[in-house]
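Entry for the shared binder. Reason: the reviewer on the internal report wants the predicted structure included alongside the sequence.
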Amino acid sequence: MPHAIITGASAGIGEALARELVSRGYAVGLIARRADRLAALAAELRSAGHAAAWVAADVLDPDAMRDAVRALEQEQGPCDVMIANAGVIAFQQPHDYDVDGAVFCWRVNVEGVLHTVDAVLDDMRRRRQGHLVVISSTAAFKGLPGWGVYSASKAAVRVLWESMRVELAPLGVRCTCVDPGYVATDMTANNRFPMPFLITPERLAARTADAIARGETEIIVPFAHRVILALDGLSPRWLSDIVGRQLVKER
């Protein structure tokens, strides 16, 4: 039974990924900070006949991440798929700039991915097999007013994946980058602006599981956002700026 470990697994996209992967025959290892949510999810999955284990850990703590992975692997075997899903969003206004919030967003979204990869990479290289999945965002392709820090953090994750997929391919380690558009989670529930082509975490999880099975290197979900990004690339800068300012105004 393949073993997939998921960070940020206590809610939203991470929880949906856990449910999707067990339905496809995976054992899942769940990592997040909220022990109560992890315990409840793992118990629910096990009661349905699936293999699930959990460890509470913070992706900002590299030692805790390595210990968590070792504990999960001891219980369920080597990690075949590591999904670096844990992340946060940050909206920043020029008149109310929260540098501490910006730094925290950057650390969770970028350092958290580095610590997650580090926790499994040596073993994957030694076994010459494994699959690293990073959850980026369509925000990685463009900085919008108010979302600069978040966009920059997700762009960093995507560029990291671009390097890793080439570097690690000869060592038998595959890499997939998932770029979702708007996803209906607790983190986006308070957004006070239009979120076109909003999708459920379950839809994203199913598409991500397909990408893992097919060995796809990058997916943009939903497809409509691929079209939007392509059109934006053809649009004049002034038009893009107008759209960006409108988003901030509606926020």
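Summary line for the report: The chain has a mean pLDDT of 90.
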